[in-house]
Design goal:
Elements (H helix, E strand, L loop, with lengths): L12 E2 L8 E2 L2 H23 L3 E2 L8 E2 L2 H28 L20 E2 L8 E2 L2 H13 L4 E2 L5 E4 L8 E3 L6 H16 L4 E2 L6 E2 L2 H9 L9 E3 L5 E2 L2 H8 L3 E5 L6 E2 L2 H11 L6 E2 L6 E2 L2 H9 L7 E2 L8 E2 L2 H11 L8 E2 L6 E2 L2 H11 L13 E3 L5 E3 L2 E9 L16 E3 L5 E3 L5 E5 L2 E2 L9 E2 L1
Parallel strand pairs: 12-26, 14-24, 28-29
Antiparallel strand pairs: 1-2, 3-4, 5-6, 7-8, 8-9, 10-11, 12-13, 14-15, 16-17, 18-19, 20-21, 22-23, 24-27, 25-26
Helix pairs in contact: 1-2, 3-4
Keywords: DNA-binding, Metal-binding, Nucleus, Repeat, Zinc, Zinc-finger
Subcellular location: Nucleus
Protein name: C2H2-type domain-containing protein
Length: 450
Amino acid sequence: MKRKCVKFQALKLRCEWEHCQSILDDLGSFYEHLTSHYYRHEGIATEVTGGQLACKWNECTVMFTNGANLLRHLYFHGYHTKVKWWGWLAHQELNLGSCQAPLNRNIIPELPCGFKCEWDNCSMVFDIADEFYIHVYDHAILAEKETLPDGKVVFPCKWVGCNYSYDTRGKASLCVARSKLKDHSRTHTKERCYACPWCGNLYVNKTKFTDHLDRQAAEETHSFQCTHCSRTFATERILKDHMRHHVNHYKCPECAMTCPNPSALKHHVRYKHSDDRPFACPYCPYRSKESYDLQVHTSFHQSDLLYNCHVEGCDYAVRSLQNLRYHFRTKHMEGKAKCYACHLCEKKQTTGFHLTNHLRAVHNFQWPPGHSRFKYKEWEDGFFRLQTFRFESAQLTEAEPHCDTGCDPSVKDVTCNTDGKKVADQPESTTTTDHLHTSQQASGNSYSKP
């Protein structure tokens, strides 16, 4: 019998506001329940603390002075609860292992402003993520086809600044075309449909969530090994996904930078060769090239936004969720944090940033054109050292990308090496570029050492 999709199974939404623990099976009722908590709490908090509002969700320590920000934050806890429930159902259905990092279960992304629709200048703003996603889906489902001058019939995305369109090619039905457009809309809304019930991380689909759990399987059970970096993986799918990032198929038309997929190339062109900054801060003249950068920036205007480390005895607090995660990884991971070592001397560092400064200052390494960082790979001794080569396709595509879909370079069938590990062969049409040429040998696409 065909399994019922987890999204159509009964909901079990547990409220974690203080000691509530109510369980509801209807999403609308759940949001109403959370709203009632907010209004009761707002009156008490304003009276007792003069306006300081603390989120009372279990394991969440964020503070606010603005009630609207707290309410939006609380609604996202509700959405997070729903997708964690879907993650739990997927875990049970597929009999997956458990996540080994349970300490961030209820830490959610920063939300300094509402969810704004930018479909064809719609500009509606929502405080509840579910309402925003459904609203954008309606735009996609009601989209009309257009006929281009060359006769192609397409369904274009009307999100501001997006050039994506789905080409029907005379085969796809209206339902299929609009469904594809709906799926594409997630690249703009950043919707995540599953969350890990243990660590709280959000994932775009079930496959990415199951990969998250599979990656945490004990290393001795890994039977798939990458021939480029010797890392091992629990499944062939994760291995092939990993190997795609080793081979660069796309060359920047402006410099010698090469990238593994169109999305990475688009990101490079935007940051290195474009002065366009379409995202404006509502509080100051700052403008950013991507919405995420604006989100990080605006969080520093929110004096009420604060993330506290919840490890007992630690009083560390910071405004950025990313910095809180870095703190936890480096201070509380009990030796599991990454360690970086210089491949030319005995110097060791706790971060790649510090090792990069060492390589540049002491050993005079330079980045090739288009690069702004070094890449490091893990060696057999557990230290991360400079990756001294990269793989490029013999058939590089030198064109500016037009969409956010990644490439799908072919990876040969999995075989076995001498120690019994299954490995994926290097793609046939690749060349190896040495990154450690001297300045006389540097060709513009390698790390150079004067």
